[in-house]
Amino acid sequence: MVNINDVIDLAVKVGQFQAESRKSFRRDAIEIKSSHDYVSYVDRESEAMIVDALHRLLPEATFITEEQTIEQSSSDAGYQWIVDPLDGTTNYVHDVAPWCVCIALKHNGQLQLGVVYEVVRNEVFFAEKGRGAWVRHSDGTVEQLNVSTVDDLDQALVVVGFPYDAEAFRPLCCDMIGNLYGHCASIRSFGSAEAELCYVAAGRIDVYFESYLKTWDVSAGAIILQEAGGRISDYSGGDALWPSGRECLATNGALHDSLLRLLQ
Fold this sequence. Notes:
Elements: H1 4-22, E1 30-34, E2 37-40, H2 41-57, E3 62-65, E4 79-87, H3 89-94, E5 100-107, E6 110-118, E7 123-128, E8 133-136, E9 142-144, E10 157-160, H4 166-180, E11 186-188, H5 193-201, E12 207-211, H6 215-227, E13 231-233, E14 247-251, H7 256-263
Parallel strand pairs: 3-4, 10-11, 10-12
Antiparallel strand pairs: 1-2, 4-5, 5-6, 6-7, 7-8, 8-9, 12-14, 13-14
Helix pairs in contact: 1-2, 5-6
């Protein structure tokens, strides 16, 4: 099994490359993958760095990566790395936080570890299956993560993600915001799914939901959330769709059933 500290060191190294590249980043360096969905040389170079290092750490593992700089594998057999080299590219392009380096490892289809480096705050969120979830702060201190204890939706801070598939998500999103606005503490959106999952794990927010993501948008944050005592599901409360990112509801657990009722 991989030493998670090696994965943390790699995520931080790549994040530092991104932060340094941001100082001279030009808007004309971006490409449009689809409507409002951006990619740049920073995404691709970051992924190449990650893939090269992970291949050396675990040569037998296959990959699923956002930018597809290596052959992709759909098989759940054996070890599989899931990589989002820069989650929150739109934030990065506009020089606003957060953006993250995200690495997860599965074995026979089951998440084993997750590392999310939130670059601007210089925080590393990480977890291994059965060993709890943790955050290393910018001053080097390490703290165990626990979800919030909020059990009243009226007191909950809710985060809504806005996927690129706007037309498909619009009816549900508008309905949910209509139901939640004025009936929860507040509604926010941060623009990085993995960061938002980690913020639920840290008890900073209480609820996060989004649709039409990809598996690299949720895998690392999902195991961190689960190990912190939170719950992640699709909108039916099951595990059919959230691993793919198609439907993702993440909560502190206490609020999960209330949100599921609204999502129906």
